[in-house]
Amino acid sequence: MRKMSEAEQREGDEIELREPAAVASDDAKSAPEDRADAGPFDASEVPAMRPYVDLGGIKVAPREGLQLRLEVDERANRVVAVSLEYAESLLQVQAFAAPKSTGLWHGVRGELAQQMTGQGAAVSEEAGALGPELLVRSQASAEQGGGTRIVRFIAVDGPRWMLRGVIMGKAAVDSAARDSVIDLFRELVVVRGEQPMPPSELLPLKVPAGVQAQRQPQAQAADPQGEATQA
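The chain above was modelled as a monomer; its predicted structure follows.
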């Protein structure tokens, strides 16, 4: 399992981003039956002329009200995730290499659930629009205002990739807002490329002109249960 050495810290409902481990307990693909037609898409499945914001391993379809920011690992000087603010919610997405015929999400989901439960969070699995997802309730720190923090983990296994999303804000608890965020997730395009990559390796992301890359000097250590911890 490979961790980021340091990751950028955000205020409020920030999560720690790291690359998932491929777990062999269940390697079936997890994806909606209409994925190829309704997304999230592989780069080979969308028209070349359709406009997208090209971030390298992920392309984002522009839409009104969408704010996009890139999360940067300061020490490694690389982009590690895409943050999309929409419908009073935050969706953070990452794309990972995967085998051609098997998936990652079932195994990764089980590992996440075990680790977060061990950290004291309440974890439940729900059937979502894209397949199984994790709903995680944890106690926010005093610096984050206290109270209960609710996060949803979603993912889809595609052709030689897995696209994972973390939903925070209104969409984590409100079904109407969540539908809007799922629709946004399904418009994303994953650019896997032809280069060989080990399973679970993060697909490279880049900063295009006009897009903000979020950096902060105070870095954080990767935490396996998906929450920020002070380094």
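The two ends are 19 Å apart (CA to CA).
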